[in-house]
Amino acid sequence: MTQKIEAVVFDVGRVIVQWNLRHLFEKLIHDAAELDWFLANVVTEAWHFEHDAGRPLAEMVPERKALFPKHAHLIDVYATRFNETIPGRVPGTADLIERLVSHDVPLYAITNFGAEFWAMFRPTEPLFDHFQEIVVSGEEKLAKPDPAIFHLAEARFGHRAQSMLFIDDNAANIAAAEALGWQVHHFTEAGALERDLKGRGLIPA
């Protein structure tokens, strides 16, 4: 029998808010082929993930500019205009968060997010005021799907893994959490999450 859920733990990017490096750079690079090349080779998601995992921008940006000097100005933009990679909320998730809050479900988050970018973005999104605690990978220098970040979150949130529902869009993160005993929901869109939350009795059917 599945253990009763005591808390819901959200991922942030692509679950609560939209995120794509393209949202920023399509404003600055107007040739589609050049934009694709830039995002595949210069400011890539893999390189960005180094900041999520704890590397400071003061190391990353000069290093990248030395590799791609012709794109130095665009690499600077990555560091200063990161919030423009987040164009808005994922449709429907905010409503589900509000409904969980109205039914007194404790909310937490585990996010792969660079510490400096989190400091820039967090004040712009009032939804996070509903969350009791948020584990940020860049602050902890631990990133999903490393089991260590889930162990840290379990200790910090004060609930056993088996009593928490973890919601993430990334299959590797879901698999890591599930292997550690968390209850999980692989997020694709808010409608499916709503049905799952209703089925688990976390919001009224």
From TrEMBL:
The keyword Transcription regulation does not apply. The keyword Hydrolase applies. It comes from Altererythrobacter arenosus. GO terms for molecular function: hydrolase activity. It holds the Pfam family Hydrolase. This is HAD-IA family hydrolase. PANTHER family: ALPHA-D-GLUCOSE 1-PHOSPHATE PHOSPHATASE, FLAVIN MONONUCLEOTIDE HYDROLASE 1, CHLOROPLATIC. Keywords: Hydrolase.
